[in-house]
Write a structure and sequence with these properties.
alpha+beta; 4 strands; about 45% helix; globular
Amino acid sequence: MFTVMDAHCALCARGARWIARNDTAQEFRILPIQSPAGRALLHHYGLDPNDPTTWLYVEHGQAYTSLDALARVGTRLGGVWQALRLFHLLPKAIQNPLYRTVARNRYRLFGSTDLCNLPDPDVRNRLIP
């Protein structure tokens, strides 16, 4: 499993730590959007790496974005995180605008950071720069 996320976004860095802490099987790999591999994956799945709302989760060759990706990551992590499947109950007409609103305002709401320089060894072990 791969997740491609913004390496400069504090919310994304929190997401990376969340995945690293809860992925006991160590199946997830994290690629920054800013990396050549991350950009290549986004292009492969028809996504724009310059779009501020871009976030990608790939499982068994199938790509997921937006709240659908978050729900699927939660399902894969198991336990209490399976509750994120509730996002699937929201109509796409609500899911996508909700996700885009948060994504477009993520720096203002959550700040910025450098995912690639996080001191968390679990995150660093999963990172494909």
